[in-house]
Backbone:
């Protein structure tokens, strides 16, 4: 049920300097350390740091594919045009106690509201996309803003990074220095020889060098497109700030270093498996799980997505299985 | 100051992770390692290590010179190990790959058409294999290519051989 259609609803600053926001029957407020979320049947508290990191991904990804759990209680479900905001919907205890709550909003409205929260609650010096070691803290009374960080544009190549007219390569000059944990990654570009008349039609680039210059963590960005098949590589360090619930099969290819995944049942949160991925490993995440990654050292991960708009319904209706292949 | 070492895999040196099952079936994760797959493959066999509906990730062991292939859609070759020369030739007759064909098709001999150029790609280098062009791989020493494409007639599915089952 859509409860609100236009506008951001908020109060003036509280004693800590932060505005309070209302979205349908949900309210969001923060103090120096914590974010408080309330709904008609309950309330919840999260670290401001963890909340802003999760909120940043949800906003930047346009609510991504499927479910973005901020933690075990709060999150969103993307219906690609509208978005559910939920509390306890994918938590077995809340469901059994009938304390869960879900409201549906047009995507532009919830996006506008989330952007307003992110803008107001992110202080100068805190970058929600950065690894904890590379940014200042999220805590304390309101102190400025960091719009340069919170409004970064997500890379979405139309064909391939580096193709003329498409997403550009990264360099020191364009503001993308090599990350401190990737200084040993070779920066050589492929040698391209184009015959006369075919200049600009022979394209290649160093993906690993490109990733070594990423200034964000846990932010899949599109670098190549084969119809609905999208390569969305990303660099990972520390903990994925959301627990991603799949509405389609998603694949991971470990390009460098190591990531550990905690895999749970998508709807209840019951533990199903642990996955350890090392360079060259390829692994599917079934369409009925949720997962959270842990990267001890900055790692390159290729997230492979099928962006077909038909998939969520096909899987939800049982016409397509939740696991990728039968063997 | 800490010195970090970035770890990549190769045919010569890879260490496989795995699925630790708690309440699930390991087969649901279709877990494999591309270097292990390539170490068991014949040159330029197209072995699927990922499948999402009609789309696949194929691993190719690059060794020697491949035949010429072409597709009715873009494909992307990411070199994961070794050094590979990728030769491109504009198809004089694009109809040798009928529109709508899924995946690439093998072409007889060297296709008619102008040479477009070549790419010498090493680990981490990604090359566009553009629609309308034929391509050929060459590697002096064994290497590994990860191909982003659509499943085609020559895609090999060997899940039971390559994936963790327990």
Residues:
């Amino acid at each position: 049920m859509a409860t609100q259609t236009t506008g951001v609803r908020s109060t003036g600053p509280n004693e800590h300097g932060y505005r309070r926001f209302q979205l349908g029957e949900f309210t969001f407020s923060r103090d120096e350390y914590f974010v408080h979320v309330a709904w008609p049947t309950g309330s919840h508290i999260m670290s401001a740091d963890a909340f802003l990191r999760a909120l940043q991904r949800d906003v930047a990804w346009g609510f991504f594919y499927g479910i973005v759990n901020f933690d075990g209680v709060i999150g969103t479900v993307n219906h690609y045009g509208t978005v559910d905001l939920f509390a306890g919907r994918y938590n077995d205890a809340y469901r059994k106690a009938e304390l869960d709550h879900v409201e549906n909003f047009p995507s532009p409205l919830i996006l506008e509201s989330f952007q307003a929260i992110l803008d107001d609650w992110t202080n100068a010096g805190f970058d929600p996309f950065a690894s904890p070691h590379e940014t200042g803290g999220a805590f304390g009374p309101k102190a400025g803003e960091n719009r340069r960080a919170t409004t970064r544009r997500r890379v979405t190549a139309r064909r391939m990074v580096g193709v003329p007219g498409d997403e550009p390569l990264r360099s020191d000059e364009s503001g993308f220095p090599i990350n401190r944990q990737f200084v040993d990654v070779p920066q050589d570009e492929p040698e391209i020889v184009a015959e006369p008349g075919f200049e600009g039609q022979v394209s290649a680039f160093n993906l690993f060098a490109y990733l070594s210059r990423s200034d964000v963590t846990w932010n899949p960005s599109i670098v190549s497109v084969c119809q609905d098949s999208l390569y969305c590589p990303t660099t990972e360090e520390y903990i994925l700030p959301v627990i991603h619930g799949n509405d389609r099969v998603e694949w991971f290819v470990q390009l460098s270093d190591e990531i550990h995944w905690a895999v749970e049942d998508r709807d209840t949160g019951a533990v199903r498996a642990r996955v350890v991925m090392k360079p060259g490993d390829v692994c599917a995440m079934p369409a009925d799980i949720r997962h959270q990654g842990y990267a001890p050292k900055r790692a390159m991960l290729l997230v492979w997505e099928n962006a077909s708009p038909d998939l969520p319904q096909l899987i939800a209706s049982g016409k397509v299985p939740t696991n990728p292949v039968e063997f | 100051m800490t010195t970090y070492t970035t770890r990549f895999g190769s045919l010569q040196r890879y260490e496989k992770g795995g699925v630790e099952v708690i309440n699930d079936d390991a087969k649901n994760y279709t877990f494999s390692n591309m270097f292990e797959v390539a170490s068991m493959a014949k040159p330029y066999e197209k072995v699927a290590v990922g499948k999402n509906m009609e789309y696949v990730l194929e691993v190719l062991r690059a060794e020697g010179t491949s035949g010429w292939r072409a597709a009715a859609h873009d494909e992307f070759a990411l070199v994961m190990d070794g050094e590979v020369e990728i030769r491109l030739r504009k198809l004089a007759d694009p109809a040798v790959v009928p529109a709508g064909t899924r995946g690439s098709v093998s072409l007889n001999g060297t296709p008619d058409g102008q040479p477009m150029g070549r790419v010498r790609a090493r680990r981490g280098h990604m090359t566009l294999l553009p629609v309308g062009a034929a391509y050929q791989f060459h590697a002096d020493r064994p290497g590994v290519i990860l191909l982003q494409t659509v499943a085609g007639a020559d895609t090999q599915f060997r899940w039971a051989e390559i994936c963790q089952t327990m």
Summary: Chain B has a mean pLDDT of 97.
